[in-house]
């Protein structure tokens, strides 16, 4: 079991390195980092060919009130396992330095890789939002507790929250 978790972690690390280099190549120079989007969620179950996860999110931008969102993440690809909780954080890049409330709402797409045996990590690069002008990069740092292996395409819809 320990060897399997080491292999899974190494696989996730390799996927993350590939995601970072892809994200950096795709990011236009005119975008600036505006803040951090943090999302948290409860238990989820992978269904081999995909999964759906709902998360509560908050955008933190220096000098502005917190901006709340509800995220629905849909994955297509390998997704096997059960997680007890999920926590993600993305650096948010936009064409303006101070987005207004709800400005990062929209649909994002990208790739995803994750591995966990009790505690694990994963990551994804997502592009989209208002007129496809927002980038959630360089990658999300995803902390998982449970047993899961996942890799594939991912779509996330952000809607303004409470």
Structure description:
With 162 residues, the chain is an alpha+beta fold. It contains 1 helix and 6 strands. The protein has one helix at 2-26; strands spanning 32-41, 44-60, 67-94, 106-128, 134-137, 142-160. Strands 1, 2, 3, 4, 5 and 6 form a 6-stranded antiparallel β-sheet that branches. It is globular, with a radius of gyration of 15 Å. Mean pLDDT is 74; it is low at 1-25.
> Biggest sheet, open or closed, and with what strands and sense?
6 strands, antiparallel
Strand proportion: over 45%
**Number of helical elements:** 1
Helices and strands: which structural class?
alpha+beta
Instruction: Using the alpha-carbon principal axes, give the shape.
Output: globular
Please provide the count of β strands: 6
Secondary structure layout plus pairing:
Blueprint: H1 2-26, E1 32-41, E2 44-60, E3 67-94, E4 106-128, E5 134-137, E6 142-160
Antiparallel strand pairs: 1-2, 1-3, 2-3, 3-5, 3-6, 4-5, 4-6
Structure, briefly:
The chain is α+β, with helices and mostly antiparallel strands and 162 residues long. 15% of the residues lie in helices and 62% in strands.
What brief labels describe this structure?
single chain, 62% strand, 1 helix, 162 residues
